[in-house]
Amino acid sequence: MVEQWCIRVPAQRGEEVRRALIDEGALDLSLKVRRDGSTLLLPVTEQRKGAERCGFEPLPERLVLPRHELVGGIAIMQDHDLAGAEKILASRPSLHTVLCAASEVSGEYRTREFGVLAGTPTTRTDVIEYGHRFTVDLSTAYFSARLSSERQRILEQMGDHETVLDMFAGVGPFAITLAARAVLVVASDINPQAIILMLANLAQNRTKNVLPVLADAHHLTGSIPWRFDRIVMNLPLSGTEFLPEALRLCKPGGKIHLYALVSAEGEHLECIQGLGGEVIAERVVRSYSPGQWHAVYDVRVGGGVNPSRNSGGH
Ligand code: SAM
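Above: the input record for the complex with S-adenosylmethionine. Below: its predicted structure, written as tokens.
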């Protein structure tokens, strides 16, 4: 037996969570999933919220693959391991390409460079997520499969007839997911390539209530004539900079989901509360580097936010 971190889930949710963990690259594929009464224990590669330590049987060696992350038909490795890449490519018929990350996620568009290790030389692929198909191009626009459960979490919180603003929308995964319940989603991004992919994603998902906007989020208050029930701010490294704009664009009583890089719990509480937002929850989304993680702050907007500033809306 090998001791490892694991997530305990009701057996009937086992397959759904197993797939989500594989998409995140978080399932420890070298160990056998265990049943414990009516629950399943899914081994994960690192500690995460709610994880516990348990013993697992190792799987036969032929199934052990080098560490990688899956995004649709692409596997991304951190190491330049050509033999490992061939093994990964052969392991699933749905894979067409194995890439190696050649840079960190960087720049305003939050993209990274890749080298091709095996398969078709492309950074473009289709991701199926909870019944939606997202075409992504990993070298020209940001996309992370690891946020799939976050999108579902926000969708589940939505009421009927909401208007939503996705301030940093990328190729549209939050916008298209939330459009299923919203009246209208305004989805803005500063990267033209992300907007082009978003248009393709809107068409292929037959989503007709998302308004794509190519814009710098700093300029939205002066150009969008509405206030929103809900705002998604997924720009973890500098999203808090845009909080004053978001608070002005949100209706009193509305909600903001602010993703932020943190190195201590409650790091952004003072800033959010100082601007008039009420933090109703702070959750860990995923680890980023040793001692740093992405957190999401769910913020309720009070009636008295920035009363002296021009809201740019009604
Ligand atoms: N929400 C998308 C998702 O989950 O896939 C994309 C999130 S990505 C971390 C952040 C996005 O913000 C990128 O697509 C980038 O182009 C965009 N961005 C960066 N600075 C921006 C700005 N000033 N105004 C609007 N979009 C911006």
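Notes for the reader.
The two ends are 62 Å apart (CA to CA).
The domain at 68-122 is CATH 3.30.300.110 (GMP Synthetase; Chain A, domain 3).
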